[in-house]
Amino acid sequence: MSRDHVRSAERAEGAVPAGAPTETPFLELLARGAPVDAYEQPVMLARAEGRPDETVVALEHAKLLALRVRAELEGRRRREAELSALFETAHDLAGLRDLDSVLRAIVQRARSLLGTDVAYLSLNDPTRGDTYMRVTEGSVAARFQQLRLGMGEGLGGLVAQTARPYVTDDYFKDDRFQHTHAIDAGVRDEGLVAILGVPLMLGHHVIGVLFAADRRARVFEREQIALLGSFAALAAAAIDTANLLTETRSALAGLERANEIIRDRSGVIERASDVHDRLTELVLRGGGVHDVAAAVSQVLDGTVEFTEAADTPQGPLETSRAEGHAVRHKDDWIAAVAAGGELLGALVLRGHPGLDPVDQLTLERAAMVTSLLLLARRSAADAEQRVRGELLDDLLDARARDPRLLRERAARLHADLDATHVVLAARLDGPAADAEQEADARRRLWSAASHLATTRHGLAAARDGGTVLLLPLRTGDTATALARRTARHLGTAVHEAVTVGASAPVRDLAAHPDAVAAAYKEGRRCLEALRLLGRAGDGAAAQDFGFLGLLLAGDRDIAGFVDRTIGQVVAYDERRGTDLVRTLDAYFTCGMSPARTKDELHVHVNTVAQRLERVGRLLGDDWQSPARALEIQLALRLHRLSAAEQR
Which candidate, 153, 265, 269, 159, places its Cα nearest to that of 206? Predict the structure, then answer.
């Protein structure tokens, strides 16, 4: 090669000047975001120039490192883009005004981030019993955009039936789902080959499916499936929020219509109009039932209180609910607060026997607004409880989840999966007259457990005919104490005996969700043990059952059992250099006979008596009772085995 050719090669892209570090060209490529094939240039030029073999090898190594760095940077950019899209979508949802716009944005962002040709969203139509296309992005076929599918048909039907994501690399060669002429024709018109579908879930119900599809064979990665699932969760939340907004707007529209009727009447009803305005303002700014009572108290110049149904005279309360009007009771007026046949409480006007029709109407309207506020509060609480239950269900089922996403979901519920927790299995023990009463009792238990989980920054879910709770364990607290407190709290709340079994403390739940399932099994074993022992309404952990706890505990805490049973005797020997453990072992071996024990140990019988007296002071006066003696003998044998293993 001529000298001019060498100079030309050194000036070419990727050339490595003599003496320059081998990493230099690759750093320059990284800095300007060069494509992957550009990273071969420095190595090829070095070979063409006849550089030493060690230089070429160094360049190859630097190339591999640079490509790894490039891949990591690309992955970080992709994850940042995904998080940004999710945050933007959540922001759209927070300011929801137009459901179609939010769903369209979700579908557009899903298509962009997954890099698919088409993305679309279908919703179930409960009236017609089928499902239909709601939003499409990237679609070019009119027939595909207007598809209506029977329930259970196509890939979407499989997703809806199983409530799990499904993906096919080649739609027309996949026989896992039912093919129909209408669906296949639409897919063929669109030219789709690879399709991914994830369910839109509200609680445990599938309301639709979110899809991403390509017009060529493609394998969707697990991260892409999880990302589409996140968009599906946001879409379901948008639909749920829109429905709640529609209900709220309908309720407000009803209040506005009532306001128009009142304003059409004579001037004597101006006070009713004024209170209506106040109540509407309370609703719009998120006031509570006691705010409504305070506002009506000012207008009626009296004392208005909200009372629970159980604390209200039953006769007038039932009459008010049946007639839909406020009813006089002695010097008070009672207006039932009810919704859908359910009695939620009452507004009571105290010490005001004389009430004109306008003021009576005011009290009745306030009761209606109170019922709307209570329903709204219940709806919000149910939504939070549902989300808490879904997260705990995911942990209990040990599904493959991203620990970071689990922590984020928990943080939104003010729960910390990195803290130490205890899994508690709770069940009612009172007899039920019939299936309806049993179902009602379980609902009350679930409601009380959910409220406790919310206040304690934990999680709760209904499972196996009872309730499971995941509660944080505070410093200095024990699983036993937590189980007993929970049993008392739930029993008081539902007015029935509630038995609670607790697991041993568990940690790092986001990284090890299978630990929750194992802890739940341990808690259920403790629950069944309590019931078999006749301790209904109590709470306990495996460590409370003596040697039975070894069978109940998931981790078989043998060292803990030995320490709880004879730990004081072992510690005494270690501190004083005495032989109490050996004496105790010989005593049981010799049939609890001091005379035979002294022969076994080759000591005086008084020495045996003195040692046994010391054991009694350490273990308690009942240490020779049959139950305690059995536990002590088992602990001695386990201690002996442990000591032999250590030697």
Answer: 159
Contact (CB, 8 A) for 195 and 211:
yes
**Roughly what angle, to the nearest 10 degrees, separates helices 580-589 and 594-601?**
120
Q: How confident is the model at residue 199 (pLDDT cuts 50, 70, 90)?
A: very high
Say which DSSP state 532 is in.
H
Structure tokens at 528: 């069944």
* pLDDT tens, residue by residue, 249-267: 777 777 777 666 656 555 5
Residue 456 in tokens? 């304690």
Structure tokens at 402: 């991203």
Mean model confidence pLDDT for the chain:
78
| Amino acid at site 449 | A
For the record, the structure tokens of 97 come out as 């005004």
- Count of beta carbons in the 10 Å neighbourhood of residue 200: 29
Q: Rounded to whole angstroms, how far apart are CA atoms 72 and 76?
A: 6
Is the pLDDT assigned to residue 620 strictly greater than 80?
A: yes
Q: Are 117 and 193 in contact (CB under 8 A)?
A: no
- SS3 of 463-478: ECCEEEEEEECCCCCC
Compare 342 and 180 and report the one with higher pLDDT. Answer: 180
Residue (of 104, 124, 122) closest to 205 by Cα position:
124
Q: Decide if 185 contacts 176 (C-beta within 8 A).
A: no
Question: How many residues would you count in the chain?
Answer: 647
For 28, other C-beta atoms within 10 Å of its C-beta total 15
- Decide if 117 contacts 194 (C-beta within 8 A): no
Instruction: Indicate the helix (H) or strand (E) that contains 481.
Output: helix 479-494
Question: Whose CA is closest to 383, among 236, 517, 272?
Answer: 236
Tokens representing 88 are: 């933007």
Interval 45-80: pLDDT, tens: 878 888 888 887 887 887 787 777 766 666 666 665
Say which residue the tokens 């959910």 belong to.
Answer: 450
Distance CA(601)–CA(609), nearest Å, equals 12
Residue 106, Cβ density class (10 Å: 0-12 exposed, 13-18 middle, ≥19 buried): buried
- Measured in degrees and rounded to the nearest 5, phi and psi for residue 518 equal -65, -40
Which of 104-108, 563-567, 642-646 has the highest mean predicted lDDT (pLDDT)?
A: 104-108
pLDDT above 50: residue 8: no
pTM value?
0.36
- Whole-Å CA distances, 151 to 179, 196, 211, 322, 550: 12, 18, 16, 41, 50
Residue showing tokens 């570090």: 21
Cβ atoms 116, 100 nearer than 8 A: no
